[in-house]
Request: fold
Amino acid sequence: MTTAAELVRSAATRVRGLQLVALAVLVVFPLVVTGSLPVFVAITIGIYLLVAIALNFLMGVGGQVSLGHGALVGVGAYVTGILTVQQGWSFWAAGAAAAAVTGVVGLLMGVPSFRLSKWYFALITLFFALVVEGLIGELGGLTGGYAGLIGIPMPSIGDLVFTGQELYWLVLALNLVVFVAINNIVRTRFGRALVAVRDGGEAAPASGISVRTVKLKAFVLSAVIAGIAGALFAAQQAVLTPTLFNIDFSIFFLVVVVLGGAGRRWGPVVGTLVFFALPELLQSLAEWRLLIYGIGLLVLMVFAPHGLIGLLEDATSRLRRRAAPARTRPAEVTDRTPEPPRTPDHTAAALRVHGVRKAFGGVQALDGVSVDVPAGAVTAIVGSNGSGKTTLLNAVSGFYRVDEGTIELDGLALTGHPPERIARMGVGRTFQTPKLLSGLSVLDNVLLGAHSDGHATLPEMGMALPRSRSEEQAWRGRAMHLLEFVGLADQAAAQADELPHGHLRLLEIARALLAEPRLLLLDEPAAGLALSELDLLMRVVDEAVRDRNVTVVIVEHHLEVVRRIARTAFVFDRGKVLAAGSTADVLDDASVADAYMGKRR
Reply:
């Protein structure tokens, strides 16, 4: 009897076979069709697909909605046309310039807009799309205006001119290269960072990820690809007019990505093929086209939020989960040579907080707090709700800027630095509500913690060069060791949102430990855990201190956990330190019991 797992493997083999057959068909397509029109249409589809892949990377993977990619294609096309027609440049040089110019345009738009919300970015790209058509028309002396820029040459190498077949193969080759490169990047630390940025929240900066930098790099790369598509478009069209790059053109690519499935690998391919014929069908309704696009986009988002590919992949995923619900992806256990353990100095303060104040309106959350945390031990912070415990962790990790006071880690000032910088300085943390990425696997969530440890560049990631591959292999080995350490190795391939609450807390600790922090901040890690999970949590914290030389600060209401694992403790009350000392002495102090536990003696 054939098992479900065997059916899945068989289906995967058939899919790979179909992909090879499809590639062979695409290669021989211009040799078997008659007439030039089918090849011309196929080239157009290929050029549009390049733009859709670029936008899917930015919007589907990174969550940044761009309404200006059609205009970026126009910039690339006109740069190519102007340089070849008016300056006599070769297509290849002009195409390279087009890619560079669109990259710079993306940089200039991204720098100011990514300091604000993603909707400001969407509005800026919309404004850009609305301006480009009119600007091209007004600069007639340079662009040819509405009369058109005429006579753009085809690419050529020596006597070989890239006409129909040759241009088709060039476009096909570029699509393959871009498709593979983008999917390689998505599977690396940059791809994981982009997903973290898309999902928002504190996971990205807590893992040392600069949200603005990741957004900017993604947009510039996406803009460069759109510029290359524009160069090809100019060569194919031979004549450019401003109306080719109106707002409809940009909306077209947005709908293509949503239709195929934003963020899905094959989404741009399906969306482009399905949607390519729609403008032709809507020619008789030209004045209503934008409205029809908008209504269609809303319908898609409501009834098929993951697009056509998403519907298919969701069904396949359900089949895989039924086939092997607890299977883990194979672990690559190659690890880097471990660093010699540091010998903690239990007399020095690994973390020093002095005179810190933080107010929210008229509420003084921290009122002159001073805390010295010894290195290489667990220090607990206890207190009633609203006493300032989590506020202090947020101040130490950079999520809150303090009003007064200083915070130092081994003599290095943390005060005033953003959270991603503080994470890179050696501060890891967890949160009251686990901040994990539901769209990633358990293993990939842990791998997010290695972001700051990477050195491979985007081109290296895209081409899967040795440095990029070796980094990923080493991180996966270390991540699997950490999953074994917290008891989640058998769930490595599961989606994070499939785990129970207690496992999510352990997973967040594993992610923080992958970055090899010197200081680990745990915010109520025992909340909601079963007794067996509490024992595992205490073992993990104890071994992290003993074997990994980590200083731990834990905010916790579960006093039995505090007694068992913490060496020293601080009691907070209304933003001030009420008591400090050894854990036993502090928790047995009568004044602490009165203020915190509500006991009367």
